[in-house]
Amino acid sequence: MSWSMGFVVVRDCRSSDVLGCIQGACLTGESVAADDVFTSELPFGARLSLAEVDGWCIIVEPFGLLFIDVLDGHGDILSALSKGTAAMGFFLAGITGTCAFRLCIDGVERRWIMHEARQIVDERGTAILEELGIPMPAWGYDEDWVFTLLERLTGLTWSQLQAHRFALASAPALDPGALD
Length: 180
Prior knowledge:
Helix content is 16%, strand content 36%. It has helices spanning 15-20, 77-81, 143-154, 158-162; strands spanning 4-11, 26-33, 48-53, 56-60, 86-93, 98-105, 108-116, 119-124, 165-170.
């Protein structure tokens, strides 16, 4: 499978806390299965999907905008979400073979790494223990790397995520036209 999407997980965080960090974001009242949100486009024109699973808030934003360190006019959302806790972002672009991971703890970035086509193309911070020993397939890291790292850091598995419904949210500030 070729995945293209971004998502963030925040420890001990509620969906309402996440929505409060994004100007104009609000729930639409619709919810869908995990298989319908871990994609390159959310259903019903939503910009975010959220679920609370075993002490973690999972936020899917397909373009990885919550993951980057400076979003025009919004600052560093992942860092803000990590105040007093831990937040991590994951990004996959299957067509280019790009996988990325970012970890922030208590508002400070601790780790950033981006792999593309079997190479590290950008890296900040020291490798964390959970990254070590994840085998790289011949084609390079892929969704298995992302979900292995997610499980090592949070204890959450893909099966656990699939067992939950994700609430959809609008976020006009994240609409492509609003970012130009």
